[in-house]
Each structure stands twice: as C-alpha cells, then as structure tokens.
Design goal:
This protein is an all-alpha fold. 76% of the residues lie in helices and 1% in strands. Helix 3 crosses helix 10.
Length: 325
C-alpha cells in the first residue's frame, strides 16, 4: 500500500508538470520548443545532481544549507584554476571541483556526526564560511568569460550520442545513487538511521559513520555541480549559487522526501527537480519578476511540507485503525 501511495504521488506530480507545461505553452508558444525544453533539461541537470545528494542527507533527518555555497566555491576555484593554468586537462579541473566539495562535505559530516552540532547550525555556519572563502580566493573579482579556455566553456555543452554532458552527468549520478540507495546494504542503513536512529544503534548500525557519509557524498556532488555550473554559464562570481540551496531543498520536498527523515525516493526527487526547472524557466517567459518567483518557490515548499505531513499522518491513522486492540 505504501508503494502504491508513493507511486500515485509521483504520477500526480508528473501529471501536474505536463499540465503546467501545456498551460505555459499556450501562454507563450516558445516554451514548448525543442531548444527551450533542452535548456530546461540542462538547467535541471545541475539541480538534480545536488538534489540527489540532499535526498540522502534529509533522509537521515539532517539538512545542508551550505550546498549553494559549496557549488559557488567549487565553481570559483575551478574558474581560477582554468584561468591560471589553462593547460590543465578538463579531467583535472573536474577533480579540483569534486575535491573542494568533498572537503566541505567532510567538515560538515564531522561537525554533525562527531561534534554533534545541529545540522542546520553547522551548515549555516559553513554556508557563510564558504561565501567568505569565495571572496577571499577571488579577491572580490569575477572570473569572466574571456579569462576561461574554450575547452572549459564548451565542456558542459559537449554532446555524447546527442546527449549533453550536463544531462549525461545527471543520468550517471542518478543511476549510481539509485543503485546505491535501493540495492546496497549502506543504502538501507541510511533509511534505517532516518526512520529511527535509536533502533538503528541498537541493531548495530554505526550511525555516526552513516551521517558522516551522506554529508561527504552531498559535498562531492556539490563540487561536481559547481564545476558544471561554471562551465555552462562561463563565469564565476561571489554570488554564484546564492539561494540555490532553497531550490535543492524544494526539489526534494516536492518529490515526497519527508523533512523529518526516513522517507524519500530518487524518482520523486527527479520529478521535483524537473518541476522547479519548469517554474524557473517559465516565469520569466510570462514576464513574472524574480521576486515573485522566490515567493512562489517558498509557497511551493510550504505547501509540499504540509501535504507530506498530512499524508503521513493519515497513513499512520490508517495503520492504527487496522490494529486489533
């Protein structure tokens, strides 16, 4: 029954995305053009990569507010690396971005798992530290398009069998994490920790190690996303990734991930990220300001949280009614 409920919610979300796309397409026919749809998928790819990592963190009952700053710092370091060492191969730049993100994830994991700092406080502090580091390493200056190499700028748009590197990266991350979550022993332990951390400890699960792992994984994919972001938009600034954490969290919540932990599916996160991508692309096309966009996104998060809470409460009540007293 639980599986059917989750499937029904995802089907409903997919139907809403299709309905919304058709509605916007009627208002502005340019929205449903192949070029615009590809742009949506490319933009959504970066969001999806981060949202998959955030899924694991939220499932354990945590949160990471530093993901936008992680993306910004890794993107800036990658841009500076390309500017100062243009001879470096793209593979090395990717490793630089991943390395920066991994370091941030490790620090977050240690603060939350070992030092027992509240996730919201630890990652809020890390968010501000990363913003300061972006300013420090860049000297408060942008890295502009003309300072980057053509190979780096064109990397995210490179196609493999007709599929862009951005979309291909998201598909690979989706497949790896999907297998990891659904078929590995560690994946099952992540959900066990989020469902009941005390019971997980009693059953012999090293909960601190699991919590550390999910933050490290989120940092890793955030670092990769920062490199891809900078390549796609061909610049890096102090504001890169600012507020991006809200979109990542929104994608997870819209996809049915319980903010209290223990529940969530990668397929739901995929649809949640796609809906955010549609909204972000559609609103400017129908001449809606960015302030209204932020308001709408905030309302969507609030409504999704309320809906998930109500559905979980109804499910618990249904189980209780079936019990024989």
């Amino acid at each position: 029954m639980k599986t059917k409920g989750i499937f029904g919610r995802e089907l409903g979300l997919l139907g809403f995305i299709v309905f919304l796309s058709i509605l916007i397409g009627i208002r502005n026919p340019e929205f449903l053009t192949l070029k615009n749809l590809l742009d949506i998928f490319n933009d959504t790819a970066i969001l999806l990569i981060c949202a998959i990592g955030m899924l694991l963190v939220i499932v354990t009952g945590g949160i990471d507010l530093s993901i936008g700053s992680t993306l910004g710092l890794s993107g800036m370091v990658c841009a500076l690396t390309v500017r100062d060492h243009p001879q470096l191969p793209i593979a090395a730049v990717i490793l630089v971005g991943i390395g920066v993100g991994l370091c941030i994830g490790i620090i977050n994991g240690l603060l939350v798992a070992k030092c027992k700092v509240l996730p919201i406080m630890a990652t809020l502090g890390m968010m501000n530290i990363c913003r300061a580091l972006i300013y420090f390493v860049s000297g408060g200056k942008w890295v502009n398009t003309y300072e980057l190499t053509p190979a780096f700028i064109n990397f995210s748009g490179t196609t493999v069998c007709g599929v862009s590197v951005l979309i291909l990266s998201a598909v690979i991350i989706y497949a790896i994490f999907g297998f990891f979550v659904n078929y590995s022993r560690v994946g099952r332990k992540i959900y066990a920790v989020g469902s009941n951390i005390r019971a997980a400890k009693v059953s012999g699960i090293k909960t601190d190690g699991i919590i550390f792992l999910v933050y490290a994984l989120l940092g890793t994919v955030g670092g990769l996303a920062g490199m891809l972001w900078t390549s796609r938009y061909a610049f890096a600034s102090f504001e890169t990734g600012s507020g991006f954490e809200m979109s990542v969290i929104a994608a997870c919540v819209l996809g049915g991930v319980s903010i209290t932990g223990g529940t969530g599916k990668i397929s739901g996160v995929l649809l949640g990220a796609l809906l955010i991508g549609v909204i972000n692309t559609a609103l400017p096309m129908i001449q809606v300001s960015s302030f209204v966009k932020d308001t709408i996104e905030g309302c969507i998060i609030l409504i999704a949280i309320i809906a998930n809470t109500v559905m979980m409460r109804m499910a618990r009540q249904k189980v209780l009614r079936k019990r024989e007293i």
